[in-house]
Design a protein that fits this description.
The complex is a heterodimer of chains A (about 525) and B (about 475). Chain A has about 525 residues and is mainly alpha-helical. Chain A contains 21 helices and two strands. Chain A has one domain. Chain B contains 21 helices and two strands. In chain B, a hairpin with a 4-residue loop joins strand 1 and strand 2.
């Protein structure tokens, strides 16, 4: 059992631990979850350190390689006749996503400390979901990947349906069905990838050595990109997201917007761009245009919202658009921006949803016009909210700035396969969203936290408790660390992303040579 | 000794029949354990039986895939009897009791024997006789409760079943006329690709289509599933479907194998129709038995995908999915039978709040439903994945899309039941269900099997080896 397996197994063991704790002792259940996820955080830190040790000498190698180098690989044959392996490993992208998930689930458990209704089932499902998420990030066998992908999506139905608020059954069903609809697309693409390569292996590292026919790449790439794009809130398949996030309980919103939506961008990059570079070249501009709509639509949508959760959900649609925009821009800068944005949006939106949960727990309203002057009674929460807001509008010093500047530069540089004028125009349009974001973030925050206290009973409200301070504190520190010392994270992911770019150029050269 | 499992089953049937005459009402409780012992003995004999060999001048033969079919029938029979035990015992409440346990079990045994014979038949006559034995007892079982719904179920089933037999027989007649032989294995060499062959194939497929509930031959299923006692519905939904599949494999792979490759589009169309109609109609059902009927129809559509390409991978995928379907469907039916037995209801809305009354039973039911929907890591996922993979291999990528979208639709209606159990609050005065020991054991076994088959590759790999050997033997 290596480190990669333990990263998946530990949350699963925690799930079992929760299941075997009697339901009559909710505090013990919370502690089991907290200790399990805390241990996972430590394990992640240890793995990062180890990973850094073994991976940093290889950075120079990655500059010319067209294959991602994996570390801590474990391979156990599973369905031998199909070529399905239990294959897990770690590369830079995986590592950064694991760090993100580990932080979010730990703070998520803290943020759901006061879930009282069916506590046991809640934590068990939450941890099962996160097991699936770790599985997706760490597995390099497509079958395993898809299996974990569905395990990560389905518990959401019950988590929203049972513990949610508002029209929860409707939102839960809409979310589940739309995501499963997306996975239907992925399945078609995945099986095509498998059979075109001879039907002997699902191993991503081996499939990457197979050159798929260009015609095939051109019809499979959009299936994969849209399939994963549904989870990454790609316009026009984003409609599950506002409903789902608005109805979900706090920790579920955190995990879903913070981590699960990242699976979309991750899958599009890992399977779509990596295995189908020529498909990506063909469709790059189209998806750049689509994600530009995403970015602006989400931002303008957020302006109109009066419910804090809808507000954040629309802002997530806009920010997740940046991820897919970066992926579609098909150059190193864009890819880096996409992965950075996954990380920074994950932390930022996790913080947002945690704070909304905390404010709602006190005021019992999420309607922005009903609130006012809350900074006077809950200064800690107000400051954290402002920090999240500033990070969201891309203020330098926070992670959001680093990510968005990469994405915009990537988009502006464009690539050899898309019309340079078009990519530049699209990037300029997308950049406008920063202004829109500033409008809604500043207006919203000002209304909620500043001015006179609108409702006398707000005066009796208290500031953050210890657990709340801990969970929000961790997220704020992460945002600032990545914002101030982005090099730590960029080094981690850059060497993993270089092969993606090299593959694009290698096939590009082949294609030019083949078809003058 | 090749026929030992069948002989044991028939013997058990006769012992039950005769013994029933001498027992008092109270003593008849012994019949269920006796029947279980008989089926278990047959399964034991099956394990010892070699998976190749011929008897009776080649009219009865064992083949590696037939062995798996027989296993599926025996497992289904054992589990069904275990699930029925609560309704057959003398202490069962009068209203929902199944009367005459001796006759009930005897008929079930004869039915089982017919099914066990099916995969071993090698000529038209034995095939037809075995098929009738696998069908006619079901008419009786369906009408076991002599009420209005049961009567309708039995009659409708019989009339449509007779029509299916007639079509099948017509097809057999044409085949005999074309080839002049009764032996299935001799036919491929004598058949030509012409319209008459196509006609014969269409008739036979239509005949089997009724048994396998392929659209448009599915109309009997909802009424029969609803009117028959729930345990009979359970038996019908797994065993009868398995019997249909075994006949279809026999016919398509043994007789029409040279034309199977060209029939791809027709199969794809039939599969598309079956799963789409089954799924769309299931969405609006309120009665859980009718709901399961349409769910079973759509599952038949997925099964059909395995015929595409006509390779051993497809055959293995079908048999594996069948095994998965048998245990998963029975795990759902376990709770359904129990719920009907103790509340008398078959409405989906009456499952509301069950998770708060019976957390473990609800969990098992939810896992069963997710298995039917094909959610990993349950075996239903692996089964469907294999069938989809065969479809993609045969080049029908659009059909993978259709099937996968259908799976999403099916998830919607399976989630409707999960929603009742987990999200809705229990009704006023609802009491927890009290499962009997045998039913609990059966539920544990089916749930464990439906989880393990997808994680432990042993069974799939074994089926795959059998399928390869089977197809190779066919090719010679």
């Amino acid at each position: 059992m290596g480190l990669a397996s333990w990263l998946i197994l530990l949350p699963f063991l925690t799930t079992l631990g929760v299941l075997f704790t009697p339901a009559s002792r909710p505090t013990l259940i919370r502690w089991v979850s907290l200790v399990g996820t805390g241990a996972h955080l430590l394990l992640t830190a240890f793995t990062t350190w180890k990973f850094w040790e073994v991976a940093s000498p290889d950075i120079a190698l990655a500059k010319t390689s067209t294959l991602t180098k994996l570390y801590f690989v474990e391979r156990i044959p599973w369905f031998k006749s199909l070529g399905v392996d239990y294959l897990v490993g770690i590369d830079g992208i995986t590592m950064s996503m694991v760090i993100l998930t580990s932080i979010i689930i730990f703070t998520g458990v803290l943020a759901s400390w006061n879930v009282v209704n069916r506590t046991k089932e809640f934590f068990a499902l939450l941890l099962l979901l996160v097991t699936g998420v770790f599985g997706v990030f760490l597995s390099f066998d497509m079958f395993l990947f898809f299996m974990f992908y569905e395990v990560a999506v389905l518990p959401m139905y019950l988590l929203i349906g049972v513990w949610g608020t508002g029209p929860k059954e409707y939102s839960a069903m809409k979310l589940t069905l739309m995501l499963m609809f997306g996975s239907a697309f992925i399945l078609v693409g995945m099986l095509a990838l498998y059979h075109y390569a001879g039907g002997t292996t699902f191993d991503l590292t081996q499939l990457a050595q197979f050159h798929y026919p260009v015609e095939m790449q051109r019809w499979v790439f959009p299936l994969i990109f849209i399939g994963f794009g549904v989870l990454g809130a790609l316009y026009p398949f984003h409609t599950w997201s506002p409903d789902g996030h608005a109805s979900a309980p706090t920790a579920v919103s955190m995990l879903h917007a913070g981590v699960l939506m990242k699976l979309g961008g991750y899958g599009a990059l890992r399977i779509g761009v990596y295995l189908l570079p020529e498909g990506a070249q063909y469709w790059g501009l189209f998806f750049m245009a689509l994600t530009t709509i995403n970015i602006l639509y989400g931002a303008f949508g957020a302006i109109k919202q009066t419910d804090l959760k809808f507000f954040t959900a629309y802002s997530s649609v806009s920010h997740c658009g940046f991820v897919l925009f970066g992926v579609a821009s098909l150059n190193l800068m864009g890819f880096k921006g996409a992965v950075l944005q996954m990380f920074s949006h994950g932390v930022m939106t996790g913080l947002f949803f945690a704070l909304i949960g905390m404010v709602y727990g006190r005021t019992h309203t999420r309607i922005i016009p009903d609130m006012g002057g809350l900074a006077k009674v809950m200064p800690w929460l107000a400051v954290c909210f402002y920090i999240a807001g500033m990070a969201s509008l891309g203020l330098p010093g926070f992670a959001g700035f680093v990510a968005e500047s990469h994405v915009f530069m990537g988009g502006f540089f464009g690539n050899a396969w898309s019309d340079p004028l078009a990519t530049r125009v699209l990037t300029v349009i997308a950049t406008l969203s920063i202004v829109v974001t500033a409008v809604y973030v500043l207006r919203g925050l000002a209304k909620v936290f500043q001015g006179p206290i609108t409702d006398p009973h707000f005066l009796e409200l208290t500031d953050a408790t210890l657990t709340e301070r801990l969970s929000t504190g961790i997220l704020v520190v992460t945002l600032a660390v990545v914002g101030l010392v982005p090099g730590l994270l960029i080094d981690l992911i850059e060497s993993a992303l270089l092969p993606f770019v090299n593959r694009l150029h290698a096939t590009g050269a082949l294609a030019v040579a083949g078809h003058p | 000794m090749l026929m030992l499992p069948e002989l044991i089953v028939v013997a058990t049937g006769f012992i039950l029949l005769v013994l029933d005459l001498f027992l008092t009402e109270k003593q008849r409780d012994l019949l269920v354990p006796l029947a279980l012992a008989g089926v278990a003995a047959a399964a034991g004999a099956l394990v010892l039986t070699p998976d190749t060999g011929v008897l009776l001048g080649g009219r009865f033969a064992m083949d590696p895939l037939g062995w798996w079919f027989k296993l599926a029938f025996l497992v289904a029979a054992f589990l069904t009897i275990a699930l029925t035990s609560g309704l057959l015992e003398s202490a069962a409440p009068e209203v929902r009791k199944l009367h005459s346990p001796g006759e009930f079990l005897t008929i079930l045994m004869f039915n089982l024997c017919g099914m066990l014979l099916l995969p071993s038949t090698r000529d038209l006559i034995t095939l037809y006789v075995a098929l009738e034995l696998a069908t006619i007892p079901l008419f009786l079982l369906a009408a076991w409760r002599r009420d209005a719904l049961g009567g309708e179920a039995g009659l409708k089933y019989m009339v449509i079943g007779a029509l299916a037999s007639a079509l099948m027989l017509y097809g057999f007649g044409v085949l005999y006329g074309l080839t002049g032989t009764m032996r299935l294995d001799a036919m491929p060499a004598l058949l030509h690709a012409d319209r008459t062959t196509l006609f014969a194939a269409a008739l036979v497929v239509a005949g089997v289509g009724f048994k396998l509930t392929l659209v448009p031959f599915h109309m009997w299923a909802p009424e029969v599933y609803q009117g028959a006692p729930p345990p009979v519905t359970a038996w019908l939904s797994v065993a009868s479907k398995a019997a249909g599949l075994s006949v279809l494999m026999l016919v398509l792979f043994r007789v029409f194998r040279p034309f199977l490759h060209d029939a791809g589009f027709a199969i794809a169309l039939l599969a598309t129709l079956t799963m789409t109609v089954g799924n769309l109609v299931a969405v609006v059902q309120r009665n859980i038995l009718r709901f399961m009927a349409f769910s079973a129809i759509s599952q038949a559509g997925y099964l059909l995908l395995g015929f595409l390409g006509g390779g051993s991978g497809g055959a293995a995928a079908m048999v594996f999915y069948l095994l998965v379907y048998v245990v998963t469907n029975l795990s759902v039916f376990a709770l359904l039978i129990l719920h009907n037995q103790q509340t008398g209801s078959t409405q989906i809305t009456d499952y509301r709040g069950l998770s708060q009354l019976n957390p473990l039973l609800s969990l098992a039911m939810m896992l069963g439903l997710f298995g039917l929907a094909g959610i990993p890591p349950l075996s239903g996922f692996v089964g469907k994945f294999l069938l989809f993979s065969v479809t993609a291999q045969a080049g029908y990528h659009w059909l993978v899309g259709v099937a996968a979208v259908n799976s999403t639709v099916s998830l919607y209606y399976y989630l409707r039941i999960v929603r009742q159990m987990y999200i809705e609050a229990p009704a006023e005065g609802a009491v927890p269900l009290k499962p009997g020991a045998l039913l609990t054991a059966a539920l544990v076994v089916t749930t464990a099997a439906s989880m393990l088959l997808g994680v432990v590759p042993t069974v799939y790999e074994a089926v795959r080896v059998s399928a390869a050997a089977w197809l190779q033997a066919l090719g010679q």
